[in-house]
Amino acid sequence: MSKVFDTELPFPTLAKTALADAQLRANLAHATTTIRDKRLKVVGELDDWEQLRSAGAAIKDYSLDHLDELCVELERNVIAHGGIVHWARDAKEANEIVVSLVQATGVDSVVKVKSMATAEIELNVALEQHGITAYETDLAELIVQLGDDLPSHILVPAIHKNRSQIRQIFIDEMGKSGLAAPEGLTNDPAALAAAARAHLRQRFLSAKVAISGANFVIADTGSLVVVESEGNGRMCLTLPETLISVVGIEKILPNWQSLEVFMQLLPRSSTGERMNPYTSIFTGATTGNGPSNFHLVLIDNGRSSALAEDTGRDVLRCIRCSACLNVCPVYERTGGHTYGNPYPGPIGAVLVPQLRRGERTPLENSLPYASSLCGACYVACPVKIDIPKILVRLRSEVVDATRASARPRTPRDESRREGLFVSSALPTRHCHGWAGRAPAAAEPAFLTAAAQQVERGSRCATSAGDVISHVVRSDTPRRCRPGTRAGHSTCTADPPP
Amino acid sequence: MRVALFITCVNDGLFPNTPQAVVEVLERLGHQVVFPTQQTCCGQMHLNAGYRQEGLHLAQRFRDVFNDYDVIVSPSASCVGTVRDLYATSARSLGDEVLADDLEEVGRRTYEFSEFLTDVLHVTDVGASFHHTVAYHPTCHSLRVLGLDEAPKELLRHVEGLTLVEIAHEDECCGFGGMFSIKNSDTSVAMGQDKLAHVRATGADVLCALDNSCLTHIGGLASRARSGLAMMHVAEILASREGASHV
Question: Do the bridges between strand A84-88 and strand A133-136 make them parallel or antiparallel, or are there none, so unpaired?
């Protein structure tokens, strides 16, 4: 049975355990130091790296500002090239769609290309519940799956395992689901890779259905881009009859030309290479050339909520390179499981709380504090997401939410919950602050604004309407100010049941 | 030049030698230093912890207290970073553009001590003498928020008798992080221990930095380890003279 993240413990509690794990500490220190050095070397080769970062951020911001139009254009072009497009508001809908698509093919197993989006929605569990086994084909995901484990890194999910541990997993587990590990398998990386290759080759050649994600989707051509190192993606994208790709709406880029920037940013930031080995770009479905059935499942799952945030929306620029994880001194010592969800590290700390619609969990509320605000992530981010700034903003949301729930309810509180914004100050005790001085006679603007924001702070549900129209409602002007969030005028104030 | 000294709550409470050293150096260079007595904490902790209202009360106070001064200097990169950057961001996050503009304005008049020496006074040799092996820890705020890298090291290189040694992986966070050391103390200590190990490997007698906050963290670990490693703010080294250096 696929494992999922289900801990309720907050970050500091989980960290205490992780910090005491000597093997984990050694594995992480070695792996992150190696990747860090590689990244610095290849980034240092480019004189225009800073301009590339700015360009990447600008293209992403443009895409996010025009997301509603780009969604429509993308759909039109995918369909024009023989693909079918599905829209999922949340994880539940996405899983229902994918399960029914797989069931329609009659298979009881699928091959998977590594996809953060499918990890986010816990697709493998949903498939399993319907008697469909999802076999991971990315080497690190395979290790995690065989080891009945959880991923601990966005790019290299088995980073918490060393080669000896991996060898043991292969010996113990491979034979149970397919070709067994060869006799006398050593922990030499080339030998381990060869064992995985042989084990997976059988899968590729017999798979009828593949499920992937995508690094980018190009609106003006309807193309998907899968950037990978091992070739398993190429196998899964070309051999089966049916391909289902699950992609977050924030992955949309306007045009082919954008890839010129991102194919320089992504490989150098992620694996520390000038170029990754395999990049597959495909458009729709063509009979006799790759899968004859192609389905694109676009998911919202909180992205349009994040889009409505003036500061926090920058997390949607993320291209999932994991450079931030590799430079983070906190991640290096605590590892990915401590973050309690498929997106660990600095990006996870700012993305996960914002994708939540409804009340955030104690773990999610602890994530913005799981940082010393050192800023190394911001320096490394290829699309210049100011993670420290967003962390501080999220902290203020935690504080505001705590204050709102702690105050005794009055009739005025009740009318606020209905959405009538009665302008009033916070209780006087909050205004004294450390200085012990009474506030100025005229209440400062930021106090009123803070009180109002506390009331508006609860996440807005996308419980009605389809994804595109919700994106339209969330499409606020760049650098929107609180109070001008057009999106909330038509949404219900209550969190989803 | 008339310089208003912003000493910060940490220095006021725990490290009075540091702002005294700032006064000594600036007066030695012929400037007048004044100390507005109504100053308080800048509110960094409050703002970083998510208490925007409380933090902005302190920001307003900072603006008011330092209203009449063209130049404000402080021996704390993190507090200057707060004044220069976090103040306006926090005000803007609550939609208060007027306050944000005010705070940006006072931020333009506020300098970290070492950057004031190199970038405003254009001085790299302050006539200091300090015969010790010294390691310099670039604090995250000084390095990434204020962009100070070579300048503080240049000041140290011009101190007579000082041997400056480089810490391996010097730009890695020491783990203090203010609130972080309290809310995530285990990880904070793990990071601090690694930083301390790198510092000790240099063989330095003294570790210096532009922020005493980081030095309390590394210094606490160093003293528990009975390492014999001394912590000093860069200002105190720059104030040291022949026969008058107190490690």
Answer: unpaired
